[in-house]
Amino acid sequence: MVSRWNYQWLLLYFIFRQHYVIANWTSSNVSDYQILGLFRDDVTTNSSIHCRAMFKAAILLSQQYNITIDGQYIGWESSQTNED
């Protein structure tokens, strides 16, 4: 019983710790260089959601690794399009 209690607290600790790390990844969009991501608004699949998440993850990683253009981080803008 005690080991289960410890396991639950350990799991809770890792969840909050991971949330804290994710919260520190702020996205700075103040840049002269912006990348526009256009994603199809498809209600039948989750592919649009996954593509937007990968796009944002790539921009955040570029900022984490200090990838810059003329000393400025890469900004981003995301937009959904209709199915046409």
From TrEMBL:
Protein name: Uncharacterized protein
The organism of origin for this protein: Adineta steineri
Signal peptide: 1-23
Keywords for this protein: Signal
